[in-house]
Amino acid sequence: MTALLEVEDLRVAYGKIEAVKGISFSVEAGEAVTLIGTNGAGKTTTLRTLSGLLKPLAGKITFDGEPLNGVPAHKIVERGLAHSPEGRRLFPRLTIAENLQLGAFLRKDTAGIDADIKRVYDLFPILGERSKQASGTLSGGEQQMLAMGRALMSRPKLLMLDEPSMGLSPIMMQKIMETIRELRSQGTTILLVEQNAQAALSLADQGHVMEIGRIVLSGSGASLLHDESVRKAYLGED
Amino acid sequence: MSELPQQLANGLILGAMYGLIAIGYTMVYGIVQLINFAHGEIFMVGGFGALSVFLALPAGTSLALALPIMLLGGITVSVLVGIAAERFAYRPLRGAPRLAPLITAIGLSIALQQAVWKWYPDGKQARVFPQFKGHSFDILGATVQRGDIFVLIAAPACMIALGFFVAKTRSGRAMQATAQDPDTAKLMGINTDRIIVLAFAIGAAFAGVAAVAYGLRTGEVQFRMGFIMGLKAFTAAVLGGIGNIYGAMLGGVVLGIAEALATAYIEEIPGMEQFGGGAWKDVWAFVLLILVLLLRPQGLLGERVADRA
Ligand SMILES: Nc1ncnc2c1ncn2[C@@H]1O[C@H](COP(=O)(O)OP(=O)(O)OP(=O)(O)O)[C@@H](O)[C@H]1O
Ligand SMILES: [Mg+2]
User: Fold this and answer.
1) Which residue ranges does UniProt annotate as crossing the membrane (chain B) (predicted)?
2) A149 and A200, same structural domain?
3) Per the CB < 8 Å rule, is B189 touching A83?
4) Is the ipTM of this complex over 0.85?
5) What CATH topology corresponds to B3-132+142-295?
6) Interstrand relation of B127-128 and A66-67 (parallel, antiparallel or unpaired)
7) What is the pLDDT of chain A when averaged over all its residues?
């Protein structure tokens, strides 16, 4: 049996600087997997490569049984891989509703799209109340909700989230983490990149710790949460 | 000395042409942050495209009948050249330092001018463009030639169609998304290469319409006509706020009217006698540009840079 996403010996470089130096991991359908690590470890680079925005130097990416190497970014969404990028990256001059519509750009089932927009509004009622507001004027937390909702609009097989808690208040962060947990329990497969190791590991089935372009430690979320070196390096304990 | 309504009408007609051409600069810039300095020549070849269609029609065909086909011919030639420029000149340079596409654009301009000069029959001289015969119209105290009615109808029609396209269609929405954040647009499943081609094509089509208007107004087309018209239209695009389609048209009209008024009235200001007349009109156009850039750098309708993705 093969995993939904299989990454083998992936290497990615910016010019001469190698940011990802040969990493391998996989994500099983229905699972939540997290990549944690310090600033500049290569987490964002990994996600951007998986969604086709960056071309790998070497390595193999298999998604849903098909190779992703050489597939352009706009075709990768079509295969069921959605990416909520670091920094949210909403379309600032478009409204909430328009951003969500764009998340469903490749879908043709108008009724299904409307139903899914309603689902996002149920998940985040504030978005429904503000649906005609330009997304650039939303608060950070609201923007993050919208970014997540937009990524869900493609009905992905795998949802990749890059630092959804970045810049949020503790309450907002809790809300976002709860939502991820909820999505996961509804069967959405998730690949989560986080600085907040505690929160990420406590909801993930599998975790991988990245350091300067390499995976240095892997294990179940629970085991990493209790690993001494992880606790020291990422959970601020000594 | 002419009267005010006449000057306003002249300015409006000229400005509508600038505005139509300016759309091409502004759309391409809005999406790929590239100034397509060959756009003036894309306008110019449209004029020759329309003329060629007219010459191919049986002698004696009335201009009113020929005009729709000429328009189609002009648009087609402009669009084909515009798409080819994107595909073969600009796309290979995407991601290169900004100077590279700029130099390419200048090279392309010269190449297109020289191609018409060398290979278009009698292209070394101005070629006569067909004219509407018959009396002119009197509108609100201004005399408007028959041929000028064309741009007065075509410019607003084009703007309404473009506004609808951008705001209401799927491709238009994709275009807005690509302009605001191209990488994220790809993540939505938008083929941004296609959107870039579309922006070049729409801009070229508008330039083709402007070229027909230019031919009808001036009675000729010639290989150099894209230079000053392109420069003015670029000025209009910056004036209106580059990246904003309505700004481009507004900038065109403001520029056209300012030019007409300066030409007619500057010489009446005591001490300014020697700066009046047509010889100085280009200077006033650029003075206006500099003033706007000093007082409102983002242009009349431009967003502040911080709002741009
Ligand atoms: N566009 C770029 N050009 C050159 N180097 C880059 C670029 N983007 C990232 N890098 C470098 O690649 C390395 C990995 O960056 P990446 O953004 O993947 O880290 P990250 O793990 O996501 O970090 P953070 O947690 O801070 O978001 C860093 O050293 C970074 O400086
Ligand atoms: Mg990152």
Assistant:
1) 12-35, 42-59, 65-85, 97-117, 149-167, 195-215
2) no
3) no
4) yes
5) ABC transporter involved in vitamin B12 uptake, BtuC (1.10.3470)
6) unpaired
7) 93
